[in-house]
Specification:
By secondary structure, the chain is an alpha+beta fold. It is 36% helix and 16% strand. The strands form 3 sheets. Strands 3-4-15-6-11-12-13 form a 7-stranded antiparallel sheet, covered by helices on one side. A hairpin with a 4-residue loop joins β12 and β13 (398-404). It is elongated and about 140 Å long. The protein starts with a helix and ends in a 7-residue tail after the last strand.
């Protein structure tokens, strides 16, 4: 049995849906085999009873049971592969027992060196943590000072307006009292005067030009907008600091950049993949491609060959002047057939550009926002354990958006160049082989 299995490649023991070794394999009436759970999940999500591989439709959901022969062969293959791998374990995982004193000394020395490396790494880690705390203290102290200064400026502006109002009212009151006095003098007792003198006296005390006081008012709410403007000014300070931090953060993340290649087997029939697997564009014409359960058949998406299940990863995509695109990550097990919503609940964490200006984080409901600078290069950062997918504009080094979630499945970078609109959106998305410095 073992010799016959050695003649078969690994693909004969892999489920085409989960791309892993069969677990409880079942065989459809058309002769194709899948994991029992994978097939049930596919039928439930697609809502159709058909073979995921050849798309043969069944009149009703067929009764499926575990293919015992295939299950036994697969289990033997699994054990054979594990036995073979155990022979090639690295020094960190497993070693043969030492044969002499020299080998013992060498193994001791290697472990002593490993202890030193771990201790040195811990020192660097502590230094990094200390620098982060010191930087955060500096940043937040600066922001608090800006906040306090902003409040002082608001108080000073309000007090100044109040002093100006006090002086104005005081001046107006004096003018009014003066006119009242002048008018009152014009009504003095003139009974003892003859008509000519009385007339002369009355007109002599009336001011030549009386002020029209009906148009004189005092604004009772002069501070409208003072506090809001102070908040806007403070937010500008915060945004400037956030931009500086984002640029520094992206610089530090460059060490996680790695190679990403497109997988043509997942590409929608309208997508053209370059020979080097680094570019994808919408062909605007359906191509003859083999049917594949991994292939998107409705949304013009393509996944990367690489899948990430741990660690930190960074890759860069040149979007140029395109008016539509989608970038991000997706679970390996996402539905790829039929109509569905692109959102985290369905295994997609993606950012989109629509109509040239509208940026959308594909949440539920969608999160729309605008950017002051249209990115020509976008960097995507995945922190698997940290549950973070972040997008950066590489032209300016600024942060665009971050998804926060918990990941349990393998994640593939995913891309869509968007549909062509005449000649406006025909350029490809281009994956850079390495992350360029900003």
């Amino acid at each position: 049995m073992e010799s016959s299995m050695s003649l078969l490649s690994e693909k004969h023991f892999l489920c085409s849906l989960c791309e892993d070794i069969f677990s409880s394999p079942v065989t459809t009436p058309c002769g194709h085999s899948f994991c029992k759970m994978c097939l049930r999940t596919y039928w439930s999500r697609s809502g159709t009873e058909e073979c995921p591989l050849c798309r043969r439709a069944f009149g009703s959901r067929p009764r499926i049971s575990v293919n015992r022969i295939l299950a036994d062969v697969t289990e033997n293959y699994r054990k054979t592969r594990m036995a073979a791998k155990s022979k090639f374990f690295s020094m960190d995982e497993l070693q043969d027992e030492p044969k002499n004193a020299g080998e013992v000394d060498q193994m001791i020395q290697e472990r002593v060196q490993k202890i030193e490396k771990l201790q040195n790494s811990l020192k660097f880690l502590k230094s990094s943590c200390l620098r982060e705390v010191q930087e955060s203290q500096r940043v937040f102290s600066s922001l608090l000072n800006a906040l306090e200064n902003g409040h002082k400026l608001v108080v000073a502006a309000v007090e100044q307006k109040q002093r100006e109002a006090d002086k104005r009212v005081e001046r107006l009151v004096k003018d009014l009292e003066k006119e009242i006095l002048e008018l009152d003098n014009g009504h003095a007792n003139t009974e003892l005067l003859n008509d000519k003198e009385r007339l002369k006296k009355s007109f002599g005390h009336i001011p030549r030009a009386m002020r029209d006081w009906s148009k004189v008012t005092l604004e009772t709410d002069p501070c409208v907008g003072v506090t809001s403007q102070a908040v806007v000014d403070f937010m500008d300070t915060v945004m400037a600091e956030a931009k500086r931090l984002s640029k520094a953060e992206l610089k530090r993340l460059e060490k996680y950049s790695g190679d990403v290649n497109l997988n043509p087997r997942t590409a929608h029939a309208y997508l053209y993949i370059s020979e080097d697997r680094k570019e994808v564009r919408h062909a605007n014409k359906r191509q003859e491609v083999p049917e594949n359960p991994k292939r998107f058949d409705r949304l013009a998406n393509v996944m990367s060959k690489e899948a990430f299940s741990y660690g930190r990863h960074l890759w860069e995509v040149e979007v140029g002047d395109k008016t539509d695109w989608d970038l991000g990550v997706a679970r390996q097990s996402v539905n790829r057939k039929g109509k569905f919503t692109i959102c985290p609940a369905n295994g997609f964490w993606t950012l989109s550009l629509k109509n040239g200006t509208q940026y959308v984080a594909n949440t539920v409901p969608p999160t729309s926002f605008s950017l002051g600078h249209k990115p020509k290069r976008v960097s995507i950062y995945l922190d698997y354990e940290g549950g973070r997918v972040s997008f950066y504009c590489l032209d300016t080094g600024t942060h665009i958006y971050t998804f926060k979630d918990t990941f349990t499945d393998k994640l593939h970078p995913i891309f869509s160049p968007g549909r062509p609109h005449g000649e406006r959106n025909t350029a490809p998305l281009i994956i850079s082989s390495s992350c360029c410095s900003i």
